[in-house]
């Protein structure tokens, strides 16, 4: 199943480029122009499905009766179709997305689907950390600076995951989870750097998930970001 806010023609262009001209055969259901996050939050009466003809919306549908390629729509009617396809009253859905606003929060909040956040800030964990990088003066004459990995600390904003708050007097700064970090552990089942990181795992692999009973770093796979791992436990970080 593929759900994208892109229009049908653009979806075909990108899908063919990334996955090959027969990419649509990989999905039983393709939904374009989904207009997320409204796809998850709107009622069926507010957002109907439409058939497509030559990439143009044609007939409005009162419900979905079979797999296919559709436009717009809503999560309620989609879930009813999944019930028919799986012959289950409550089929489990695992939804992958790279946007907290358009994908992860609405899918979790409005449909209670399991959510996997694809988070590019987790990429490059195997690369050197800023404090481990070799000084420029020790590098060879023709060796330029390495490309900055996505998981490096921003010189302006600091860590994507934790921040420090100044305290009065001579007290040490307090560490707090950033807004982004708290949203990840609240609305994501797990967070991964890319699809490749889990592609070769067995289908019955059991992930440690984010939950109220686990550490706020439990759901990061395959590695916790080093700015979080270096804190050892949640007890060092103040929840606000």
From TrEMBL:
<dbReference type="GO" id="GO:0046872">
    <property type="term" value="F:metal ion binding"/>
</dbReference>
<dbReference type="InterPro" id="IPR023214">
    <property type="entry name" value="HAD_sf"/>
</dbReference>
<dbReference type="InterPro" id="IPR036412">
    <property type="entry name" value="HAD-like_sf"/>
</dbReference>
<dbReference type="Pfam" id="PF05761">
    <property type="entry name" value="5_nucleotid"/>
</dbReference>
<dbReference type="GO" id="GO:0016787">
    <property type="term" value="F:hydrolase activity"/>
</dbReference>
<keyword id="KW-0007">Acetylation</keyword>
<keyword id="KW-0378">Hydrolase</keyword>
<keyword id="KW-0479">Metal-binding</keyword>
<keyword id="KW-0460">Magnesium</keyword>
<protein>
    <recommendedName>
        <fullName>5'-nucleotidase domain-containing protein 1</fullName>
    </recommendedName>
</protein>
<dbReference type="InterPro" id="IPR008380">
    <property type="entry name" value="HAD-SF_hydro_IG_5-nucl"/>
</dbReference>
<comment type="similarity">
    <text>Belongs to the 5'(3')-deoxyribonucleotidase family.</text>
</comment>
């Amino acid at each position: 199943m593929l759900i994208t806010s892109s229009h049908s023609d653009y979806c075909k262009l990108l899908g063919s480029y990334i996955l090959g001209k027969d990419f649509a055969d990989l999905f039983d259901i393709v939904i374009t122009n989904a207009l997320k996050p409204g796809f998850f939050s709107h009622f069926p009466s507010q957002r109907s499905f439409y058939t497509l003809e030559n990439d143009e919306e044609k007939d409005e549908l009162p419900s979905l009766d079979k797999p296919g390629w559709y436009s717009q729509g809503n999560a309620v009617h989609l879930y009813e179709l999944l019930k028919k396809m799986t012959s289950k009253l409550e089929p489990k859905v695992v939804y992958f997305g790279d946007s907290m606003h358009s994908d992860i929060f609405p899918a979790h909040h409005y449909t209670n689907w399991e959510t996997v956040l694809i988070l590019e800030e987790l990429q490059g964990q195997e690369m050197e950390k800023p404090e481990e990088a070799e000084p420029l003066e020790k590098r060879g004459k023709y060796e330029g600076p390495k490309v900055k990995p996505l998981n490096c600390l921003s010189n302006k904003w600091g860590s994507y995951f934790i921040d420090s708050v100044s305290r009065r007097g001579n007290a040490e700064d307090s560490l707090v989870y950033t807004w982004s970090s708290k949203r990840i552990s609240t609305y994501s089942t797990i967070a991964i750097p890319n699809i490749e990181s889990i592609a070769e795992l067995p289908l019955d692999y059991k992930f440690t998930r984010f939950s109220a009973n686990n550490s706020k770093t439990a759901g990061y796979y395959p590695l916790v970001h080093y700015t979080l791992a270096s804190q050892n436990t949640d007890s060092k970080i103040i929840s606000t």
